[in-house]
């Protein structure tokens, strides 16, 4: 069996591992105009930063024994706003959180938090390297502009699938995101954070064209919200 990746619109993804873990990244459902199919639950939920379009509806997606992964300040904010619905044991490392550069093993999935360049009300923005029991490596960049350290991530990790924002205004535009692919050198690039709102880039066409020109050996999969690919 293979791992599966489903884009749920905006920066919201679900990874279903062949070992049975369900990983959700940046849940944004109720007010997401580009929402795809609704996921059932998340055994692990990763939060890149605390903007509403990356952590809305979090509690309703969390499995009963689920774990939320994020920075200490972000987790404190989420817990404070959850009332009694979320407890210390629902957060990574008994509520302590993790930070950039660190790796934790959650339910047999290795999760490394890496830097991102954006803004956040609490803590600082981040991305994630996710290594599943199947041996696949996923990179979710979070909301970010391009940065030189992406080539270091590409050197350290053998990235199978990179999920990269291309929508401009708040993140990389297609030109920067295509160059990010060149730095990261993944096997497959999946564009995200576009088409959700009118102000964002509406199509992945330019990104696909630029990647094809810069990195012909990288496959771009511009999937639709709700579409699933095998990895």
UniProtKB/TrEMBL annotation:
Top-level taxon: Bacteria
Organism: Halarsenatibacter silvermanii
Entry similarity comment: Belongs to the UPF0173 family.
InterPro entries xrefs: Metallo-B-lactamas, RibonucZ/Hydroxyglut_hydro, UPF0173, UPF0173_UPF0282_UlaG_hydrolase
Pfam families, alphabetized: Lactamase_B_2 (PF12706)
Coiled-coil region(s): none
Listed SUPFAM superfamilies: Metallo-hydrolase/oxidoreductase (SSF56281)
Record-linked SMART domains: Lactamase_B
GO molecular function, one term: hydrolase activity
Keywords: Hydrolase
Entry protein name: UPF0173 metal-dependent hydrolase SAMN04488692_10848
Ranges of residues in domain Metallo-beta-lactamase: 9-193
